[in-house]
């Protein structure tokens, strides 16, 4: 009997805030006219910050992790050319870097596909990745992690490395 009372009371408590939170539609004509105190200096709102300018770059610096072997590899990928990492084929569709006067940021649009043992090709990831926050748009794969490190003007020698 007491369990029924507790459940009924809990249902009542949960139902009350939902009905109390209903807000009537806002009517701009009915809004109170708020005036600044006498003698207060009224300043206009600051202008919005200028839009960030991104420069297109021809090469993306990517880093990959093979979760099975725990090896990381850093490799470069030219825009439009496929690169392989394990069973993945990655094509960088665009790579952009913030101008030097803005806070540092690099973003690349990646298209990643996995070639399975039976010969089928399965799309794994397609979208923008940001170097400053890789978890914002992460590639979800059980074996591989790939993320953007930077965008560059041209590829350089001996950029591919592997750490154990």
Could you characterize the architecture of this molecule?
With 164 residues, this protein is mainly beta. The chain is 12% helix and 40% strand. The protein is built from one helix and nine strands. The strands form two sheets. Strands 1, 4, 5, 6 and 7 form a five-stranded antiparallel β-sheet that branches. Strands 8-2-3-9 form a four-stranded antiparallel β-sheet, with no helix packed on it. The longest helix is centred in the N-terminal third of the chain and has 19 residues, at 2-20.
Tally the helices: what do you get? 1
- Main β-sheet description: 5 strands, antiparallel
State the helical fraction. Answer: 10-25%
| Rg value | 27 Å
Percentage of residues in strands: 35-45%
The averaged pLDDT comes out at 80
Number of strands: 9
Outline: elongated
The helix/strand order is HEEEEEEEEE
Low-confidence stretches: 17-21, 158-164
List the helices and strands and how they pair.
Blueprint lengths: L1 H19 L33 E3 L2 E8 L4 E8 L3 E4 L2 E11 L7 E10 L5 E10 L13 E9 L8 E3 L1
Antiparallel strand pairs: 1-5, 2-3, 2-8, 3-9, 4-5, 5-6, 6-7
Keywords:
1 helix, disordered C terminus, 164 residues, 9 strands, mainly beta, five-stranded antiparallel sheet, four-stranded antiparallel sheet
């Amino acid at each position: 009997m007491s369990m029924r009372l507790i459940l009924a009371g809990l249902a009542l408590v949960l139902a009350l805030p939902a009905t109390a939170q209903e807000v009537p539609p806002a009517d701009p004509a009915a809004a109170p006219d708020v005036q600044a105190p006498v003698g207060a200096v009224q300043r206009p709102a600051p202008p919005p910050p200028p839009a960030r300018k991104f420069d297109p770059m021809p090469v993306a610096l990517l880093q990959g992790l093979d979760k099975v072997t725990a090896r990381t590899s850093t490799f470069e990928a030219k825009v439009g050319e496929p690169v392989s990492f394990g069973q993945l084929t990655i094509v960088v569709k665009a790579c952009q870097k913030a101008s030097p006067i803005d806070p540092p940021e690099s973003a690349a649009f990646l298209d990643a596909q996995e070639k399975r043992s039976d010969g089928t090709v399965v799309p794994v990831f397609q979208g923008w990745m940001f170097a400053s926050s890789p978890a914002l748009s992460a590639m979800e794969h059980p074996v591989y992690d790939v993320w953007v490190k930077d965008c560059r003007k041209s590829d350089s020698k001996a950029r591919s490395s592997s750490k154990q």
